[in-house]
Amino acid sequence: MEIKRRKSKVIKIGKVFIGGLNAIAIQSMTKTKTADIEKTVKQINALEDAGCSIVRLAVKDLTDAAALSKIKARTNLPLVADIHFDWRLAIAAVRNGADKIRLNPGNIDKGIQIKEVVAILKDKGVPLRIGLNSGSVKEYGGQRTSMPERLVRSCLGYIRKIEKLKFDNIVISLKASNVLDTLAAYRKIALVCNYPLHLGVTAAGSPYKGIIKSSIALGALLSEGVGDTIRVSLTDNPLEEVRAARSILESLGLRSGGVQVISCPTCGRCELDLISIVKDLESKLEAQEYKQSAHPLKVAVMGCVVNGPGEAKEADIGVAFGKKEGLLFKKGKPVKKVAAADCVRVLLEEINLRR
Question: Which residue has the higher pLDDT, 106 or 58?
Answer without folding.
Answer: 58
